[in-house]
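Quick one, tokens below. Sequence please?
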């Protein structure tokens, strides 16, 4: 069993020669072999590659120096992020034997920063869904309740972090696919500012909406991973003082059709932020619903374009739900697509205007708790939706506008399922999100993190 620890604790342990990267990597690989049978978080485990990387990191630590920010830190990648010579299936049957010839940009950055690649995480096929129920590689299971979904499409990434199968994972987000599993699995997930981190080498859904970013155990680890991804300083923003920070609280859309336990946890989290010195300001987002719905038009149209060739030649090799999405995308006309792009531009302008007078916006990450595997429709306060529409309802808008958005845990339901809080800022203000998230974490999440560690240790 690998003791649950933070990245900062791991690095101190390496520095003090309490353990070595090879020892830690072997322990994680052994744990993955044991636990993955229960949770199905990995499609491919890169044992040999990881141990080679660990040996290089160990040589540096034995010489007494740290040459890179993530030297010897074991992580994983969503399996639509290209890894040179390591199978990258995209969660599909079509690409089951695809071995990329070069690494994606994010892999290059993190391996240069010293991270160790434990393997590739299971996902919803081609990232077109939020349940992570994969017809080819099996359903990913939520460690908090293994007959429930972990969210998606980066479900394997969320589970890997929550279940202590590595210290972080890299996912992608087109309509909420980092933040949804972060909330559902009780971990921290950041969708950075659009284009802040290159998506080169990633099998995308939509060039207008795709983002790539980290899922981590806590906000401090998030800051360290972001330093490896961007070469910018983030750890210095892990401060508990948020006095005077202006946080916008939406009075519409984000408060509608929400499960009572989610509403209660959200309201309690706002009170905690206020206790910490934040100033809560009511805001209106009248454009939110119509704008967020345009995500479907853009993502389906662009997704159908990306998959045009294989959809024509290998249509029956797609899973049923993804095939239906892509075929719907082919039916979207140019006029509707252009209208959706214009809505996107207007939404960016309107959200920028709202953010002129505040520092952050706070919303629930999800309107509902994670549902049992196989559930396809959800009814909340009289509103019936398919599960895809429901669970992306509060995340889609910020993928559309490209503003950075962070999901942090705020507690659990009576059924012991995690609940998340979403914080959103102006472009390139990830440091503010880290500061607010860290302050909340320090004040409120000690018991939650102990509970999550207990869950991981008893899988």
């Amino acid at each position: 069993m690998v003791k649950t620890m933070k990245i900062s604790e791991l690095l101190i342990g390496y520095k003090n020669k309490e353990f070595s990267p090879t020892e830690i990597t072997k322990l994680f690989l052994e744990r993955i072999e044991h636990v993955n049978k229960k949770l199905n978080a990995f499609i491919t485990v890169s044992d040999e590659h990881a141990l080679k990387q660990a040996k290089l990191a160990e040589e540096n630590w034995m010489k007494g120096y740290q040459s890179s920010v993530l030297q010897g830190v074991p992580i994983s990648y969503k399996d639509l992020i290209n890894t040179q010579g390591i199978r990258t299936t995209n969660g599909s049957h079509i690409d089951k034997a695809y071995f990329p010839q070069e690494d994606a940009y994010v892999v290059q950055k993190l391996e240069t920063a010293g991270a160790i690649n434990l393997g590739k995480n299971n996902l919803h096929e081609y990232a077109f869904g939020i349940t992570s129920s994969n017809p080819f590689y099996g359903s990913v299971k939520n460690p908090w309740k293994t007959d429930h979904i972990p969210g998606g499409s980066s479900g394997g990434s969320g589970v890997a972090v929550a279940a202590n199968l590595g210290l972080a994972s890299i996912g992608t987000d087109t309509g909420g696919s980092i933040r949804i599993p972060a909330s559902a699995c009780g971990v921290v997930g950041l969708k950075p500012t659009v284009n802040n981190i290159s998506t080169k080498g990633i099998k995308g859904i939509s060039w207008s909406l795709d983002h790539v970013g980290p899922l981590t155990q806590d906000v401090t680890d998030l800051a360290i991973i972001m330093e490896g991804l961007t070469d910018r300083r983030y750890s210095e923003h892990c401060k508990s003082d948020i006095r005077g920070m202006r946080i916008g609280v939406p009075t519409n859309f984000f408060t509608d059709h929400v499960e009572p336990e989610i509403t209660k946890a959200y309201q309690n989290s706002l009170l905690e932020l206020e206790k910490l010195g934040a100033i809560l300001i009511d805001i209106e987002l009248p454009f939110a619903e119509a704008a967020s719905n345009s995500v479907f038009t853009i993502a389906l149209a662009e997704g159908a374009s990306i998959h045009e060739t294989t959809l024509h030649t290998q249509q029956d090799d797609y899973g049923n739900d993804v095939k239906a999405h892509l075929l719907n995308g082919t039916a979207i006309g140019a006029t509707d697509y252009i209208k959706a792009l214009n809505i996107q531009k207007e939404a960016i302008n309107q959200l920028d205007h709202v953010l002129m007078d505040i520092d952050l916006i706070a919303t629930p990450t999800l309107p509902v708790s994670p549902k049992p595997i196989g559930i396809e429709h959800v009814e909340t306060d009289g509103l019936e939706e398919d599960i895809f529409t429901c669970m992306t309802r509060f995340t889609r808008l910020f993928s559309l506008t490209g503003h950075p958005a962070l999901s942090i845990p705020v507690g659990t339901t009576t059924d012991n399922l995690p609940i998340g809080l979403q914080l959103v800022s102006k472009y390139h203000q990830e440091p503010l999100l880290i500061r607010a998230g860290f302050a909340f974490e320090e004040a409120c999440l000690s018991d939650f993190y102990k509970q999550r560690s207990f869950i991981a240790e008893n899988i």
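The longest strand covers residues 405-412. The mean pLDDT is 97.
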